[in-house]
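User: For documentation purposes, I need each entry recorded in a consistent format: the amino acid sequence on its own, followed directly by the corresponding structure tokens. There are two entries in this batch. Please keep commentary to a minimum and don't merge the entries.

Assistant: Recorded as requested. Entry 1:
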Amino acid sequence: MAGREFIRHVATIVSIDAVGFSRLMGLDDEAAVAIFEERRDLIDAACSKFGGRMFGPAGDSMMAEFGAPIDALLAVLDFQDQIRSANESLPPERRMAFRAGINTGQVIVRDESRYGDDVNIAARLQEIAPDGGVVISETSWHHLRGRAAVSFVDLGEREFHNILLPVRAYRVERGLTARAETQDVAPAFSFFRADGKGGPPAVAVLPFRIDADDPEIRYMGEGIAEDIIAGLSNTRWLPVIAMNSSRQLSDEALMPEAAGRALGARYVVTGTLSRSGGTLRLRAALDDASTNRNIWSRRYDRDASEMTEMQGEIGTEIVATLEKEVDRMEQARTFRVPWESLETWQLVRRGRWHMQRRTREDTQMALDFFLAAFDRDPNSSTVLDELAWWHFWRAWVNFGGSGEYHKDLEKVVHYSRKALYMDSQDARPHAHLGITDIMLKRPANALEHLAEALRINPSFAFARSAMGSAHNLLGESSRAIPLFQDAERLSPFDLYRFHNLGELASAYSHVEDWPAAAAVADRSLALAPSYWYARFLKIGALARMGRCEEARHERSLLLARDPDFRVERAEVIPFARPELNRFLIEGFLMADRD
């Protein structure tokens, strides 16, 4: 038993419980079981629709695992709506509601079961949820805020039985538009495309409208749209309608559906720009023209003196968000078509979906899809990119391990170089070559590749974070900090955001900004409480500030979560000079001083 190895991965766990099941059993046990099984089928179908996997049923409770927190929340909102509708046909005493708790964190994978504190936290959150309601953890909240038509009520920190640390909880409150957000009203698989042929759907960006006749900001409406079009064009896989065509459809009465059909685009980006006093306000939205459904929207407020800076900043941020949102929608669509009609790009998106699940089975399924796409189109740079990423991911999991580690990195280089041969203006292969150099302790070499990736696609948050890591490993932390901050802005809901924050905490540590290092490390831990590096850095920062009692408390938490932790683990971080490792280790060891 002592030698048994366990697989861990990050997941979002949903704990679901039937409210009043025992009471109904007392009234009519057979009817209660029948109602429960009908509701359970609705729950199972909703979870499957949003990419969830059920596990661990126990009596009137059940659990589901999701890759992304937003998918977990949308699934819960979906099945609660369906159950609410089903209950309306029953007398009040026979209605059965289901409450849910959602938590994101690390779980231990064992066959079809999932274990760990983060699974138990989801169950405890469910226990404090209202009938037919949802309560989420702070870890999930960081990924969900602003992503769905809901609001969150802060319930404060809660102490739970057998849970080591207090958990901040949030109750989900839904508005009138929440139901529309969770409904799946898309028709059978179809899409608009400018050339009318098969392949990925096109996106159109309409000129941003000006709320008032203000000539000083009128030029910005088209300018921001042009920035978005240029940025989306660099994503390589997504066709973008030219601005010369999009600017013809600036009629305010024109709905996104009509604009999409006119331009041959499934996705339509719209926005408005206004000025009130010294403040500029911009609203942007992404709609699916095939269903007339809003996918994403956001408001930006900036000082009028920052007009020029705002144009570039907003355009870059929208590009990063739209790329993720459109990709997420397309992954879901591929499951509505049979295998024999899947084209190469659909195979890639389906493989990406499984990669996001991060289980051993899903990872293998992802490779199967990527290889199937490779068989159909061995010269597709997109397919080659995915194969390069797959092998990098496996190398990262086995960092510094067996010969397979180096073989995987060799394959990353092979596929990336071939992808560049097929498309020299693809940013991803340059980024993959850069992070491979980082893994091989060559951060200086990595900078050249990452700089080229950002030249091609300035909105590439992953490349910005990787370049920050390369500078930090070289001891150039002051140059790394803005890059990590850019990545944070460009990808604020990234599931691996905790890693970027951990790297930022490391950079702050090396410039000896201890309050910032401790604060950012704490933000990283809010997203991933088991992330040892962030806790290690927080301990060192607290100790350097003379707050040794707090540092020792954090160290006890680190050892409680990771009893096998040894300070030597920090020695393998691939800094260019050993003294950079020693500097961080010395801070950690200062926690023992009075």
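Entry 2:
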Amino acid sequence: MVMAKRKKRTEPAGTRWRFYTAVIVLFGVFTVLVARAAYIQVISPDRFSLQGDMRSLRSDSLPVQRGSIVDRHGRELAVSVPVETVWADPKRIDEHNALADSRRWQALAETFRMNREALVEKVDDPSKRFVYLQRKVTPSEADYVKQLNIPGVYLKTESRRYYPTGEIAAHVVGLTNIDGEGQEGLELLYDEHLTGQPGKRVYRKDAQGRVVEEISQTEAQQPKQLTLSIDQRIQATAYTELKKAVRYNQATSGSAIVLDVDTGEILAMVNSPSFNPNNRADLQSYKMRNRAITDSYEPGSTVKPLVVLSALENGRHKAGDVIDTSPGWLRLGGRRVSDPRNRGELTLTEVLKHSSNVGVTKMALDLGVDPLLQTYADAGFGSDTGVALLGEGMGLLSDRRRWSEFELATLSYGYGLSVTTLQLAKAYSIIASGGIKRPLTIFRQESPLPGEQVFNPDNTRAVLHMMEEVVSDGTAKQAQVPGYRIAGKTGTTRKTKATGGYGDEYVALFAGIAPVSNPEVVVVVTINEPGTDDYYGGTAAAPVFSSIVAQTMRLLNVPPDNPNDTEIRAAGFGGQQ
């Protein structure tokens, strides 16, 4: 019995081997897990962190509206307004079998004025997750889309550019595309300035879509506003009068500029034909050109005051001098320069008053080409105006060495050079400001831009009074404005042909200053290719000037400086006067 109890226990065969095997396996598994964890956490954490972030991190853009463009008084010329855009998720549409409801898709297609098959074709690929159906719809259309309640069709808020003045300021302001990117005018030139930078919010969501962590938030950089020198009231007036004149004269096009003499600010810049940036259905490229700064013409007789000014500046003539224009014509190098009739001896004032080609030719021949070209250059011809608008032309002012006498003669009455409407306005603003040349600007100024004295104030004042006679008793009587003293000069030029020489088409111009006693504005009107017999500057362009100035003086509250020219009534009581 005792011997049996003391018998040694024997372990089953293979037990120890299985134990060590299990220990080794567990140790190996543990080692692999630790190594894998170390690889994920230390050696290569980025890829798995990215995968995790893709599942949980979300980011939202904090949009900003495009900056506004306003006139000098804060009236909106361009503004962004929130609108709805219709988009679809084709995968969600497929999951809900939404295409089976053909009536709703037909109604949606009719809302967008498109074919149902074309609309369905946009959303029949379930591999896509985002498709635009219609950008920037009207509020009524957006409301109807909501009522249709088609699975997978949604609305998102975007912004749409709206131009309250329509075609009136279109050439200055320009326009944007459907994505709000500038395409023309100031919208394009200052696109970055107007756009700003959207903000961004980054956060983490759990599996149930709840926000569990705010990661970061970047504040939006608000866009800046453009405040123009344009006075919307004067702009509207100028456009209305120009459009009527272009239609009445059956002209191809026309332009008008209104400048502030003291500051160089552009109060109005208009062209006809124009375009409505709110309606792109019939948008045509030729209507979008800002002709006031891009198209250049031979200025004709509008440069004659500069010839007189050059003669005064260079001491070749004095204000009271007399020039003999008999017999009313000159022959230079086999070519003829003539006036409509022989006017005999003319004072410098009468040379401008009667627009004598012979008179200014004799002055130019006495001056020589270099002083005359220098005067034109000082007046801003052949260079930019400083306004820095897209597409601005610099015209043509030749600097060749050799000039014939006839070429010098034609240069004195506005042929052989070309200027834009804006350049001509700048030249007259120098005369109006007493010989001070300053860059023009399209932005409102708190104080005048620095200027340069390029002409003697006494000489510019003398020329100003000479031009007053042109309006009061000369070729520009239709430019008169009741109650105000007006100075100006007409111009009528024939247009060159592409094949060389001059054709039968004309450009009618008038450039003027008001009022003479204390010049406030310069207005230049160009009527291109009038289709009637009244194609002269004094009959086609001068009346437009008169209408624009009359209303501009009222809008700017400029008191009359010629009260004897109009009947002034005192308001009485009870409606009596």
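Summary note for entry 2:
The CA atoms of residues 235 and 426 lie 18 Å apart.
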